[in-house]
Amino acid sequence: MKAHVAVLGGDGIGPEVIAEGIRCLKAVAESFGHDIELTELAFGGAAIDALGNPLPPATLQGCLRADAVLLGAIGGPKWSAPTAKVRPEQGLLQLRRELGVYANLRPVKVLPSLAGASTIKPEILQGVDLVFVRELTGGIYFGEKRRDATTAVDVCTYTVQEVERITRVAARLAQQRRRKLTSIDKSNVLETSRLWREVSERVVRAEFPDITLEHVLVDAAAMHLIRRPKDFDVLVTENMFGDILTDEASMLSGSLGLLPSASLGDGRRGLYEPIHGSAPDIAGRGIANPCGTILSVAMLLRHSLGLNTEAEVLEAAVHRALEDGARTPDIAACGTRTLSTREMGDVVLANLAKRE
To answer: Which of 16, 191, 241, 270 has the smallest CB count inside 10 Å?
Structure first.
């Protein structure tokens, strides 16, 4: 098949981990006989420095023409001053809205060989396999914002239609898994959460009667993610709650560097990125974990290009690397030899080659 992927390296460790994702994508394409064109585009802080805009028009148009978008990470202290008028994150929010990617899928699966990388007891982690579905284009991040000398206001707004569509995405995913859906809100306090609970309940009862639905308050969900994570299957929640809870959930696997994400809309085009940030403290040192990015490439193959077999092959190559002991510093035991970003990519590529 022929496909076009827009590549946004971004800032910090973004270009480093994206380089390994691209190597793996090219290897899979060559192995299976696909023609995948890659176009690298300026984005984030790097684009602010070069062009004064975190999402230049040419970058946006390139993403809109592509079959999928692969993103590294954005941001850093250089662009985060409280008085800054232009920030990398503004470009990311605009990109999500322009692409119409309202459903962010973040899977968390704990490999037995990595149980020791987490600070959670191994017996708690056994069997953990869950997916967060985070609403991505509504809520407080996209609401009206005001500030004066004495007051700051961020408005959180949700519509019935926004809650209906994200609930349907999560429920369909639950039907493909263990048929259990957990909806997370703060309905004892927030009016938006009361709407969320009412609408999600109605949608699941009317359209997905085979799904078991439970409602959990966000503070309780944060506790139960650590106390009994293997009880969860698919979790659906609003934008800010999802942002926070998925970072917490990443510690079940041992590192932010291990987890991928897919941001999807109503079409096949999606935005794919590891859930970690730009990590400016380690940028340029060659020690970032590229596994989350490589697994994001696998999600790109599956969801935007319809290449499920290729996605499974790439995921298996990453998992074999980890099961065989390949470790970057973020998941290594004290005193253990660690691999560089490039070396971890080499091990994954070697496992891909073994398939042939």
So the answer is: 191
Residues 6+ apart with CB under 8 A from 98: 60, 63, 64
Tell me whether residue 128 is exposed, middle or buried, using C-beta atoms within 10 angstroms of its C-beta: 0 to 12, 13 to 18, 19 or more: buried
**Which residue in the list 158, 185, 186, 272 is annotated as catalytic?**
186
Domain with CATH 3.40.718.10 in the chain: 1-101+260-356, 119-253
Instruction: Please pick, among 11, 243, 272, 330, the residue that the annotation labels catalytic.
Output: 243
Nearest in space to 139 (alpha carbons), one of 187, 192, 189 = 192
- pLDDT tens for the chain, residues 1 to 356: 999 999 999 999 999 999 999 999 999 999 999 999 999 999 999 999 999 999 999 999 999 999 999 999 999 999 988 788 899 999 999 999 999 999 999 999 998 888 888 889 999 999 999 999 999 999 999 999 999 999 999 999 999 999 999 999 999 999 999 999 999 999 999 999 999 999 999 999 999 999 999 999 999 999 999 999 999 999 999 999 999 999 999 889 888 899 999 999 999 999 999 999 999 999 999 999 999 999 999 999 999 999 999 999 999 999 999 999 999 999 987 667 899 999 999 999 999 998 65
Instruction: Give residue for tokens 């460790």.
Output: 13
Say whether 74 sits in a helix, a strand or coil: coil
- CATH class of the structural domain 1-101+260-356: alpha beta
Residue among 219, 266, 281, 324 flagged as catalytic: 219
Residue 82's Cβ-count burial label (10 Å; 0-12, 13-18, 19+) is exposed
**Alpha-carbon distances, residue 207 vs 143, 161, 172, 175 (angstroms):** 29, 15, 10, 12
Count helices and strands in the chain by DSSP H and E runs:
12, 12
The CATH number of domain 119-253 is 1.20.120.1460: no
Q: Check: CB of residue 341 under 8 Å from CB of residue 287.
A: yes
Q: Which of 102, 141, 158, 272 is catalytic?
A: 141
141 catalytic? Reply is yes
